[in-house]
Amino acid sequence: MRPVLLTSTTTDPSTFEAATGWAIKPEGACRAEMCVPLPDDVRVDGGLDVMVLADRLGMPVLRDERHDLVALGPSTVAGRALETAEAPELDLPDADGNPFRLSSLHGKKVLLVAWASW
Fold it and tell me: What pairs with residue 114 in β-bridges?
């Protein structure tokens, strides 16, 4: 699953399924043969509470309250999450051509964005 960006902390089941692959059924959140039971408080105002779903499915979540955005990472209940949040050493030129080492940011939260023209 790729990261998902939502514009609210609530969503409807079909939107959540289309974005994450998790179908909301009476038995819980299901993907393929696996179903994860959901607590009663997952349903709010005719929709689903994204924060409750993220917690139950082991999805990392970031919330930007100022812009009312929620970013969800892949679920970990299937066992396919990264084992560590440590990135390998990365030594690349910065925008001015000076060497930059990722380790110089050790202890800080870092968002890496990769882009390729192809």
Answer: none
- 47 forms beta bridges with 44
Task: Tell me the three state secondary structure of residue 117.
Answer: coil
Q: How high is the pLDDT of residue 77? A: 65
pTM to 2 decimals?
0.60
**Domains of the chain, residue spans:** 4-72
Q: Where are the alpha helices (DSSP H) in the chain?
A: 13-20, 50-57
At 103, phi and psi to the nearest 5?
-65, -15
Among left, alpha and beta (phi > 0; psi -120 to 50; other), residue 21 is left
**Amino acid in position 38:** L
